[in-house]
């Protein structure tokens, strides 16, 4: 039964995560919204791990088991361009946002590539996301939900 639930969550995640790699949000409520694939208001460990795997696989375009800088920043840039196209900001503000966000994505890549190999492995990607899961599971019950008190500075 548990395997079936995990598989169902993974399938649902695959169908709803069309935009690829999402950073594990520092804000608890945003984290829940982005990671809760079955809509129950709770993010289990299994659900989170399945979602991170799907996000990684989506961005690893050449399927070599690692995300290159080009894959990581390129995937982010595609999502950014979609958001900017829908934005009501002035062209100047859009360009400022584009430059700032792409620069930040490049910095994030450098942080996630903890061994400085020039690529983000699944282990590196999973580790950084897992740190956010643990941060948000502040009542240590193994799930992230609104029942978890927000830690100082986490929202």
Describe the structure.
It is a single chain. With 155 residues, the protein is mainly α. The protein is 60% helix and 6% strand. It has six helices and four strands; from the N terminus they run ααβαβααβαβ. The strands form two sheets. Strands 1-4 form a two-stranded antiparallel ribbon. The longest helix has 22 residues. 26% of the residues are buried. The N terminus is likely disordered.
For the secondary structure, the number of strands is 4
Mind describing the biggest β-sheet?
2 strands, antiparallel
Total of DSSP H or I helical runs spanning 4+ residues: 6
Report the helical percentage.
Answer: 55-70%
What oligomeric state do the depicted chains represent? single chain
Mean pLDDT: 85
First and last CA, distance = 35 Å
Order of helices and strands: HHEHEHHEHE
Strand content: 5-15%
Overall 3D geometry?
A: globular
Regions with little confidence, pLDDT below 50 for 5+ residues: 1-20
Radius of gyration: 16 Å
Instruction: Determine the structural class based on helices, strands and strand pairing.
Output: mainly alpha
Give the strand order, joined by hyphens, for the main sheet: 1-4
What key attributes describe this structure?
4 strands, single chain, 6 helices, mainly alpha, 155 residues, two-stranded antiparallel ribbon
């Amino acid at each position: 039964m548990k395997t079936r639930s995990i598989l169902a969550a993974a399938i649902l995640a695959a169908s709803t995560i069309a935009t690829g790699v999402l950073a594990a949000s520092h804000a608890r409520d945003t984290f829940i919204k982005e990671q809760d694939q079955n809509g129950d208001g709770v993010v289990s460990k299994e659900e989170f791990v399945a979602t991170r795997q799907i996000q990684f696989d989506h961005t690893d375009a050449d399927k070599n088991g690692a995300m290159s800088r080009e894959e990581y920043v390129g995937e982010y840039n595609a999502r950014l361009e979609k958001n900017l196209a829908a934005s009501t900001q002035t062209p100047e503000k859009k360009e400022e946002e584009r430059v700032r966000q792409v620069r930040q994505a490049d910095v994030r890549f450098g942080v996630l590539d903890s061994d400085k190999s020039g690529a983000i492995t699944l282990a590196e990607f999973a580790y950084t996301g897992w740190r956010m899961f643990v941060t948000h599971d502040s009542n240590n019950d193994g799930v992230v939900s609104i029942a978890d008190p927000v830690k100082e500075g986490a929202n």
